[in-house]
C-alpha cells in the first residue's frame, strides 16, 4: 500500500481490502482499476474519509459504478462501515464468531440489518447460512488473517486462527479442485463444497489450509494461458512416477 501512496494504517488496510473484495467480479485489471478509482476519490485515506469526510467530500463518490454496484450502493455500504468504525474503532469484529462460518454470517447480517425484504442491497452480502460459498469474503479473511510475511496477506486480524480459514471457491477453482480429486465430480461452488475442500486442504497443510488457494488459482490460470484443457494440463504436470501433484500429502 505504501508503494501506491496509501498510508499503512489499520483502518486504511481494512477498508481498502473490503472495497477490493466486494468489487472482485470479472477481470482483475478492471477490479484493480475500479478499486483504485474509489480509493482515489477518498484521497487515498479511506480510514480518515469514513470518519471525518464532510458531506461535500462524500459527493465525490457520486458516479462510481462497477458491474451491479451503483454509487448509491457504495455510499450506503461505506456509511455502514463508517458507523461501525466510529463505535468500535475497527471493522475486525464485524467478522467475529466461534467459527469462520459464524463470522461470515455475522458480517452479512450486520450489513443487511435494517434493509427491507427485497431491497437490492441484499445481493451484495452472501452468507453460508444461505449456502453461499462466500468466495469474496473468504478471500478477504485470507488477506486479513493469514500472514505470509510477503505483503500479500496482511495478518492484521486475530479474530480467527489461520488454521481455520477456508479457501475462496468459485467455478474455476472448483474445476481445478475436482481435477485434482479434492472435490467430487459435478461439485458446485457452495458452502458444502467449501467445507469439503477445507477437510482435504487441512490434510495437506493442517496449519495453513488457505495456502492452497495460490495453487488452485495458479494451476487454473496456467492452464488457461497455455490454451490446454485443464485435465490435460494437470496430466502434463504429473511427476514422472505418475503419483500426481499431491503425492502422499507432501503439499503443492
How is this fold's topology laid out?
Elements: H1 10-22, H2 28-41, H3 46-52, H4 55-58, H5 71-88, H6 100-112, H7 135-145, H8 171-179, H9 191-204, H10 212-226, H11 230-236
Helix pairs in contact: 1-7, 8-10
Judged by helices, strands and strand pairing, the structural class is mainly alpha
- Average pLDDT rating: 88
The level of helicity is: 40-55%
Q: Whole-number radius of gyration? A: 19 Å
Label the overall shape. Answer: globular
Features:
mainly alpha; globular; 0% strand
Short characterization:
With 252 residues, the chain is an all-alpha fold. The protein has helices at residues 10-22, 28-41, 46-52, 55-58, 71-88, 100-112, 135-145, 171-179, 191-204, 212-226, 230-236.
